[in-house]
Amino acid sequence: MLCGLSGGADSVAMVLILRRLGFAVHALHCNFHLRGAESQRDEDFVRCFCQRHDIPLEVTDFNTEHEARTHGESIEMAARRLRYGWFAEVAQRLGAAYPQRKVHVCVAHHADDNVETFLLHLVRGAGLRGLSGMRVVNDEGIVRPLLETPRQTLLELLEEWGETYVTDSSNADVRYRRNRIRHELLPLLRSMNPNISAVLRRTMRHLDDAGRELAACGHEDLRSRLLALGFNATQITQVAQGRNGAYTLANGHILTRHGDTLRYGLLPQPVPSTSLVPGENIVRDEVFLFRRCPWPVPGFDLRQPHCAVIDVRAVRGALSIRSVATADRFTPFGMRGTRLVSDYLTDRHRSRIEKFAALVLTDSEGILWLVGETVAARAAVTPDTAEVFIISRCP
């Protein structure tokens, strides 16, 4: 079992539990060098812990900020990509060295993490699969052996065994959405129902069961509907057995594979560049309201996904809305460096249909808003913003 070991309570508990269950444990630690002396403290702790318990350990270093800038992604996305990429490399190497053994990569997500993920997906707007939460074994084969175990149970075990661990100070920073859910939303929900975590875990299981039943019962019915729309058997089979994002077209419809599901619908029609005027604008049967006003607006929530607030000083020329073009790039708010819009949408787990339907708000210098997703960094309001454009999407 190749175990990601950060030195925190969750990963320390996972390693010790797997050892006690008789598994051969090999620890993997990533030093992302994001928290100065604290990052080195974590590495030192992990080295001492593994030496004390006679656990094989591999450590790697990443210049995470440089990687994020180079690839135009957030620190969180870069760290995840680097971590899991390295885990896969080690798994492949050890699998080749010990062909008689089955090698698994394990991470320490627990039941409370799953509840937070459910709420994150709920806030962002997810479908049935997204609201089913994480799985014990995901599509990439990553194992989460603690997924049904509450964190309090892990803490009690560590106390009983006399084991110490380190604490990541960034976990208290409520600027991160997951931390806001952990420290603000969940305590509020617990005040309404002290058993809310168990209730939400049960809800996720119901949703997962419903999704599996629909997939099993609807297979033949789906095939019949797809054939009636004009897709042939070869097209259906190729998409069903293809990679994530595989798609095919027939009679103005699109069929695509998204994760472990098939999705189909009318092929979204491309929207040519359409100038915005003050007031109401009709774009592909949707209404966009456009106004200019002083900033700040009392009580206005900047996190509304279907509304963009653009600093007037950032705009060059006229504002227009159009479909995403193949080579479109922008710098998303909170990131450094430019990203392809298509790559950003992939990271957000958007389906091929959603990508075809995606719209951007532009000026003469490029993208200001990826509609429904995020504004560009150059368009974001600042403490000294005095006037803004507000564009609201009303389906």
Per DSSP, the total helix count is 11
Biggest β-sheet description: 5 strands, antiparallel
Biggest sheet, spatial arrangement of strands: 8-12-15-16-17
Q: What is the H/E order?
A: EHEHEHHEHHHHHEEEEEEEEEEHHEEEE
Structural class: alpha+beta
Shape: globular
Beta-strand segment tally: 18
Q: What Rg, in angstroms, do the CA atoms define?
A: 24 Å
Would you identify the regions where 5 or more consecutive residues have pLDDT less than 50?
none
Q: Taking all residues together, what is the mean pLDDT?
A: 89
CA-to-CA gap between the ends? 48 Å
Q: Indicate the percent of residues in helices.
A: 25-40%
Beta fraction of the residues? 15-25%
Pick out its properties:
4-stranded parallel β-sheet, single chain, 18 strands, alpha+beta, 39% helix, 395 residues, 5-stranded antiparallel β-sheet
Please explain how this structure is put together.
The chain is α+β, with helices and mostly antiparallel strands and 395 residues long. 39% of the residues lie in helices and 21% in strands. It has eleven helices and 18 strands. The strands form five sheets. It has a five-stranded antiparallel sheet with strand order 8-12-15-16-17, with no helix packed on it. It has a four-stranded parallel sheet with strand order 3-2-1-4. The radius of gyration is 24 Å and the shape is globular.
Question: What's this entry about, in short?
Answer:
The protein is α+β, with helices and mostly antiparallel strands and 395 residues long. The chain has helices spanning 9-20, 37-53, 64-71, 75-97, 111-124, 151-161, 177-192, 196-229, 233-240, 341-347, 352-357, and strands spanning 2-4, 26-31, 57-61, 105-106, 247-250, 253-258, 261-266, 274-275, 279-283, 286-294, 307-311, 320-323, 329-330, 339-340, 359-363, 366-370, 374-375, 387-394. The protein is built from 11 helices and 18 strands.
